[in-house]
TrEMBL record, chain A:
Top-level EC class: ligase
Coiled coil start-end: none
Organism: Sphingomonas kyeonggiensis
Sequence ranges assigned to domain Asn/Gln amidotransferase in this UniProt record: 343-499
Record-linked InterPro entries: Asn/Gln-tRNA_amidoTrfase_suB/E, Asn/Gln-tRNA_Trfase_suB/E_cat, Asn/Gln_amidotransferase, Asn/Gln_tRNA_amidoTrase-B-like, GatB, GatB_C_1, GatB_Yqey_C_2, Gln-tRNA_amidoTrfase_suB_CS
Subunit structure: Heterotrimer of A, B and C subunits.
Catalytic activity: L-glutamyl-tRNA(Gln) + L-glutamine + ATP + H2O = L-glutaminyl-tRNA(Gln) + L-glutamate + ADP + phosphate + H(+); L-aspartyl-tRNA(Asn) + L-glutamine + ATP + H2O = L-asparaginyl-tRNA(Asn) + L-glutamate + ADP + phosphate + 2 H(+)
Listed SUPFAM superfamilies: GatB/YqeY motif (SSF89095), Glutamine synthetase/guanido kinase (SSF55931)
ATP-binding among keywords: yes
Record-linked Gene3D superfamilies: 1.10.10.410, GatB domain, N-terminal subdomain
Entry protein name: Aspartyl/glutamyl-tRNA(Asn/Gln) amidotransferase subunit B
TrEMBL record, chain B:
Function: Allows the formation of correctly charged Gln-tRNA(Gln) through the transamidation of misacylated Glu-tRNA(Gln) in organisms which lack glutaminyl-tRNA synthetase. The reaction takes place in the presence of glutamine and ATP through an activated gamma-phospho-Glu-tRNA(Gln).
GO molecular function list: ATP binding; glutaminyl-tRNA synthase (glutamine-hydrolyzing) activity; transferase activity
PROSITE patterns per record: AMIDASES
Domain Amidase: residue ranges: 26-474
Gene this chain is encoded by: gatA
Record organism: Sphingomonas kyeonggiensis
Pfam families: Amidase
InterPro entries, sorted: Amidase, Amidase_CS, Amidase_dom, AS_sf, GatA
Superkingdom per UniProt: Bacteria
Active site: K79 (charge relay system), S160 (charge relay system), S184 (acyl-ester intermediate)
Protein name as catalogued: Glutamyl-tRNA(Gln) amidotransferase subunit A
Catalysed reaction equations from the record: L-glutamyl-tRNA(Gln) + L-glutamine + ATP + H2O = L-glutaminyl-tRNA(Gln) + L-glutamate + ADP + phosphate + H(+)
Keywords noted in UniProt: ATP-binding, Ligase, Nucleotide-binding, Protein biosynthesis, Transferase
GO biological process, any: translation
Gene3D superfamilies cross-referenced by the UniProt entry: Amidase signature (AS) domain
Length: 501, 494
């Protein structure tokens, strides 16, 4: 564990930044937290609203077990205390996007207690600079609807599709000390949520967003007064918010001012945070236990099922990739940073081992290198990602197998891969149809070499006179003459012999 | 010959089954009665077509030789707190005037599924807040009862289920639904000389019932006698997955097992219910009740419920607190009343809508509830009240180690005149003093008519049971009913 050295240089000296994040993560579930309504993103306004979501008279909430299960699994994934007894509270306030006039949340008795997340602050070596960030709690609550201000010149419209959707509020301790740490924490949290499958982590669709609590202090001093910047919706914006808000606070303090505990908004276009409301205007939410809902009591069988259903998590997977598969620390970290990447890699690995009849550890390095350089390079170029990749893991494994058994040379493999990207055809089919097979036929190679030597007497003389650097020239000529299909090792060997005379 | 409308639920059901009269004749008879009783203002909406359709279904089933449903041929009144699909549901408020739900409450649906028909939606105190029916936006219900001796002052039918109690005692309906949050079934039953039972909290689904105080609200039947209550109750209760607080238990056979034999039963008399200032007549009636249950074979023991005196203040913290939150949804945004003048913003719309849509008593309770939940007062009021509520429930648990049932008066007075208490909310709240403790503890409790006071007005006795012991409550109620021989009925003046 390391101490952050991130400091803001003010006129009165260095300032330390203290950061805590409250992350709202939409629970992956077909139905809302307390109603059966659907939760798909991007549906027509008010097409996913039940009588309960619209708070019609006499309607009652009933908890959706799947939402509870996902929150519990998330808690388990961060090593947190799962509270077998928790309770829902009402947070009362009036707003047009809140049909009940209260949000059902958990203030007094959250579902998940303390846990922690390890963040890595060194890209090259994930174990070199690791910091543990404490999680205070996770509770589940309802999302609100959305006001639409652009539908009518003088009126606002309300879309209740999101109203009642289940959110997990994941509250960190004030353990972060730099924008980098805040960014690493949010990225890691998102990775864990995606591994667990409890949230899709799509910040651009609003299914994950962060309230950023920032304060500054002289290193080692007491915590300063914090501000809370609401609904920041990307990792980059969270890092910017921390930096901008911390600098603002330092300026205020150094000018002799005081930080007001308040809610702020981040404006990415202007690169500033703005006051939304101060503590004085803060709502009195009148929290009290929701009398429509019984306390949530979880039994051991339920908890056991939650635990058993957890997948291998990113840190464990990364270590296994390094230790059991022999991957470099960097590759292991890159492949496991995201659940989708790891899933793709493991499919590639499994298929490769199967068709090559080898252990996974034997095909792991080549698979990792190909995925991270060749495939990622191509996808970047094509503006695609793994989800939309024109080449499947099975097709990738076939290509790698053809390279491994000598059917394809390195350059040939690259050529075949390009054709795969264009056509979507399988590597074997391309090799077959286009005759791209590598040859180790010594007779054919020897004939070509003899021809090359005959055509280039000057170079041959120089080589034999001691200019051995010309070896590469002869290799190039030979390969070119054979359209790249000659086995390079065989070419090298035969050339050496022929050149030696 | 007895008029059809003098018959109760059981007699109507049995008469239709036996072919003594048709369901149509029954429906017609009650529809006429309802239409001629406008002076009582018991109904907000009349729905003769609903009652006739149910009657037709019953008569057709009988003609086909099919087995009749449990309530086939029985038309009832529906308190206008239950959402009824396509039929205006107002909670007696301006806020919901004209509101027609697209859904049917679980309890009313069960009654229709059992073959009952609806004569109309019954008036009540606005959002079920009140003990006299004077807070209804649609005008107060007038009790069919009058004091003797030429005193024609209009009397309160009790509340909040005052439309139900008035309609039953005036023979406009043989039975009706009520809801009880702090006594809203039992007190109006006592005021009008009928029976009513609030079952154990969780027996009746609250789904589709306009919420007042969620942890206390419980539906129940009101009818002219105990057996009719048992029959109706059987067709109202049952597990509902749409209500998280619904009890997942089979429906007991209360009617079949109904017995007024109290041999082997111990009945507790809580000494704290002997309040100073309780009229002598009520104390005398209570003593009479004790004698009756002894006569039915019960052993009577004195018990103590030491926290009784805190029940009323506790109730008037918890119920308004929950109500202040439950009624937040009436904001003018999605349904119901909207008051929005040109150029007004959202906050102004809220204020104008809620000022116009809620009557003074509802506003008072929202303000009380908001206050007791607010920062700085929460612990002193709401937390403290929640603790006291637990103590009150423990009082009952302790008492029930010594006895099976409790016997008390239902209300501290007979029906009062309209206007007599409406200026003094505290005097009005005191009317709930005997009914509120059982509500706070979620216990089954019923009121049965036991006698008349010197002015000729009905008085009721209350039986409180252990959780889920509706059978015991109904049995003791029947024992009293059999001995009280209560046959008094209001003389028709309307």
């Amino acid at each position: 564990m390391s101490e952050s050295t991130y400091r803001i240089q003010g006129e009165t000296g260095e300032w330390e930044v203290v950061i805590g994040l409250e992350v709202h993560a939409q629970v992956t579930s077909n139905a809302k937290l307390f109603s059966g309504a659907a939760t798909a993103f991007g549906a027509e306004p008010n097409s996913q609203v039940s009588l309960i979501d619209a708070a019609m008279p006499g309607m009652l909430p009933t908890p959706n077990q799947e939402c509870i299960r996902q929150a519990v699994r998330t808690g388990m994934a961060i090593g947190a205390v799962i509270n077998k007894w928790s309770r829902f509270d009402r947070k009362n306030y009036f707003y047009a996007d809140l049909p009940q006039g209260y949000q059902i949340s958990q203030l007094f008795h959250p579902l998940v207690g303390e846990g922690q997340i390890e963040i890595s602050l060194d890209d090259k070596d994930p174990e070199a600079n690791v910091k543990t960030i404490g999680i205070e709690r996770i509770h589940v609550e309802q999302d609100a609807g959305k006001l639409m201000h652009d539908q009518h010149p003088t009126r606002s419209y309300v879309d209740l599709n999101r109203a009642g959707v289940a959110l997990m509020e994941i509250v960190s301790k004030p353990d972060m000390r730099s924008p980098q740490e805040a960014g690493a924490y949010l990225s890691k949290l998102r990775a864990i949520l995606r591994y667990v499958g409890s949230c899709d982590g799509n910040m651009d669709q609003g299914s994950m967003r962060a309230d950023v609590n920032v304060s500054v202090r002289k290193p080692g001093a007491e915590f300063g007064t914090r501000t809370e910047t609401k609904n920041v919706n990307s990792v980059r914006f969270v890092m910017q918010t921390v930096e901008i808000e911390a600098r603002r606070q330092v300026e205020v303090l150094e000018a002799g001012g005081k930080i007001v505990q308040e809610t702020r908004l981040f404006d990415p276009d202007k690169g500033e945070t703005r006051s939304m409301r101060s503590k004085e205007d803060a709502h009195d939410y009148r929290y009290f236990p929701d009398p429509d809902l019984l306390p949530l009591e979880l039994d051991d069988a339920f908890l056991e099922e939650c635990r058993a259903s957890l997948p291998e998590l990113p840190d464990a997977k990364r270590r296994r990739y390094e230790q059991a598969l022999g991957l470099s620390a960097y590759n292991a970290a890159t492949l496991t940073a995201d659940a989708d990447t790891a899933r793709w890699f493991e499919a590639l690995l499994a298929e490769g081992a199967r068709i090559q009849k080898k252990g996974e550890q034997e095909v792991a390095r080549a698979s990792a290198n190909w995925l991270l350089s060749d495939l990622y390079g191509a996808l970047n170029r094509l503006n695609k990602d793994l989800d939309t990749s024109p080449v499947s893991p099975e097709q990738g494994a076939e290509l790698l197998a053809l390279a491994a058994d000598g059917t394809l040379s390195g350059p040939l493999a690259k050529q075949v891969f390009e054709i795969m990207l264009e056509t979507g055809d399988a590597a074997g089919k391309i090799v077959e149809e286009r005759g791209l097979k590598q040859t180790s036929d010594t007779g054919a190679i020897e004939a070509v070499i003899a021809e090359i030597l005959a055509k280039n007497p000057g170079q041959l003389e120089q080589y034999r006179g001691g200019k051995e650097a010309l070896f590469g020239f002869f290799v190039g000529q030979t390969m070119k003459a054979m359209a790249g299909k000659a086995n390079p090792a065989v070419v090298n060997e035969l050339l050496k012999k022929a050149l030696a005379g | 010959m007895t008029e059809i409308t003098d018959l109760g639920v059981a007699a109507l059901r049995d008469g239709v089954r036996a072919g003594t009269f048709s369901a149509r004749e029954v429906a017609d008879a009650f529809i006429v009665k309802v239409s001629k009783a406008k002076a009582l203002n018991a109904f907000i909406v009349e729905t003769p077509e609903h009652a006739l359709a149910a009657a037709a279904a019953a008569d057709e089933a009988l003609a086909r030789g099919e087995a009749l449903k449990p309530l086939a041929g029985v038309p009832i009144g529906m308190k206008d707190l239950f959402a009824t699909k396509g039929v205006q549901t107002t909670a007696a408020s301006h806020m919901l005037e004209g509101f027609k739900p697209v859904y049917e409450s679980t309890v009313s649906q069960k009654l229709w599924d059992a073959g009952a028909g609806m004569l109309g939606k019954l008036n009540l105190d606005q959002f079920a807040m009140g003990s006299s029916n004077e807070t209804s936006y649609f005008g107060n219900v007038i009790s069919p009862w009058r004091r003797g001796g030429g005193d024609n002052a209009p009397l309160a039918p009790g509340g909040s289920s005052g439309g139900s109690s008035a309609a039953i005692s005036a023979r406009l309906v043989p039975g009706a639904t009520g809801t009880d949050t702090g006594g809203s079934i039992r007190q109006p039953a006592a005021f009008t000389g009928i029976s009513g039972i609030k079952p154990t909290y969780g027996r009746c689904s609250r789904w589709g019932v306009v919420a007042f105080a969620s942890s206390l609200d419980q539906a129940g039947p009101m009818a002219r006698d105990v057996k009719d209550c048992a029959i109706l109750l059987e067709n109202m209760v049952g597990f509902d997955p749409k209500d998280s607080t619904s009890l997942n238990l089979p429906v007991p056979k209360w009617e079949e097992l109904l017995s007024g034999d109290l041999k082997g039963k111990k009945i507790g008399i809580p000494k704290e219910y002997r309040l100073d200032g309780t009229p002598e007549e009520i104390l005398k009636l209570w003593d009479q009740g004790i004698a009756w249950v002894k006569d039915a074979g019960a052993e009577v023991v004195e018990v103590s419920l030491p926290h009784t005196k805190y029940a009323l203040p506790t109730y008037y913290i918890i119920a308004p607190a929950e109500a202040s939150s439950n009624l937040a949804r009436y904001d003018g945004v999605r349904y119901g009343l909207r008051e929005l003048a040109d150029g007004q913003n959202l906050q102004e719309m809220y204020a104008a809508t809620r000022a116009a849509g809620f009557g003074p008593e509802v506003q008072r309770r929202i303000l009380i509830g908001t206050y007791v939940l607010s920062a700085g007062f929460y612990d002193a009021y709401f937390t403290q009240a929640s603790k006291v509520r637990t103590l009150i429930a423990q009082d009952f648990e302790n008492a029930f180690t010594l006895c099976d049932l409790l016997l008390t008066p239902t209300a501290p007075s007979a029906a009062f005149a309209l206007g007599e208490k409406s200026a003094d909310p505290l005097a009005m709240y005191l009317n709930d003093v005997f009914t509120v403790p059982a509500s706070l503890a979620g216990l089954p409790a019923m009121s049965v008519p036991a006698g008349l006071d010197s002015a000729g007005l009905p008085l009721g006795l209350q039986i409180i049971g252990k959780p889920l012991d509706e059978q015991g409550v109904l049995g003791a109620g029947l024992a009293i009913e059999q001995r009280a021989g209560f046959t008094a009925r209001p003389e028709q003046w309307w």
